[in-house]
Amino acid sequence: MxxxxxxxxxxxxxxxxxxxxxxxxxxxxxxxxxxxxVTALFDxxxxxxxxxxxxxxxxxxxxxxxxxxxxxxxxxxxxxxESVAASGVDLTMPxxxxxxxxxxxxxxxxxxxxxxxxxxxxxxxxxPEIEDDYHVFGALNFPDxxxxxxxxxxxxxxxGHPNPLLLRTHTSSVQVRTMEKTDVxxxxxxxxxxxxxxxISARAHCIFHQIEGLYIDEGVTFADLRQAILLFAREMFGxxxxxxxxxxxxxxxxxxxxxxxxxxxxxxxxxxxxxxxxWLEILGCGMVDPNVLEASGIDSKKYSGFxxxxxxxxxxxxxxxxxxxxxxxxxxxxxxxEFEAAPEV
Length: 345
Ligand code: PHE
Known about the structure:
Layout: H1 3-15, H2 21-32, H3 37-45, H4 50-78, H5 82-87, H6 105-119, E1 123-124, E2 130-132, H7 133-136, E3 165-167, H8 172-181, E4 186-195, E5 207-217, H9 222-237, E6 243-250, E7 253-262, E8 279-288, H10 290-295, E9 304-311, H11 312-320, H12 327-330, H13 333-336
Parallel strand pairs: 1-4
Antiparallel strand pairs: 2-3, 4-5, 5-9, 6-7, 7-8, 8-9
Helix pairs in contact: 1-4, 2-4, 3-4, 6-11
Bound molecules: phenylalanine (PHE).
């Protein structure tokens, strides 16, 4: 028995190629079978002189292990044995395409609006969906007996507590939290999910999404508010867009306004989307009430600000002319797939 015998088998093993399990079995017999090459070396080993036994013994055992591993590896990788080949299955075929999901239309709209306000220098703030009465109502100048606190509108999580927990009905609560912990000047938008106890219909849902904005600094005026909303509307709905402001009421802003944008579908001629008026309502806004600033520790003599808020589903409905709010919540793939390429209309 010679060292070269071991090396020869190792190099043969290195070149060994098998295409079928049958060939792997043949290789196994060739090396490890009763009359195999490795088996033969074990027979010769008996003749080896005593002082060489130790060295050869170890090499021989290593060789056997290497051959066994190689055979095992071939057995696993060859895989496609004759029965697979005979069955006509082509294992080299590419797999079936599994469709990737697409972004939800509400997410697309939220991202678009956040991007616009980021360009204007606004940060993004988020807050809890389960809030307390103080951050949703109290700090926002809602009188104790204001109807919006009524069980009709608000889902309370706990009752009987002086500051009960509830599902936030607007993301203005995030603005309060921002005012509490951030130094003026403040410029934030707060996107998030909100909850109101409303019957589900084509135009209302008990869960929807808002984006609200807040800007506080020295000398902020209603003109700044109007300009910010106009710039936003033009970025969002096109450069020709006009806005109009109608007086409104919110407990936390004074004066308050509702904003309409010119209908980008009929361009003012009147269509069924704008119900013949040429205008579409998109958001509520106003100058932050001094009481709200003071409640969060901001000096209302020195600072003023504006706030605005809009519903994302509503903007998405206008953008893609979806006529039923419920589509956004049903996760019907036929609807969601419409937005794979986020078509603009
Ligand atoms: N929070 C109001 C709502 O949910 C929207 C709003 C925000 C109005 C800020 C004015 C100022 O309807």
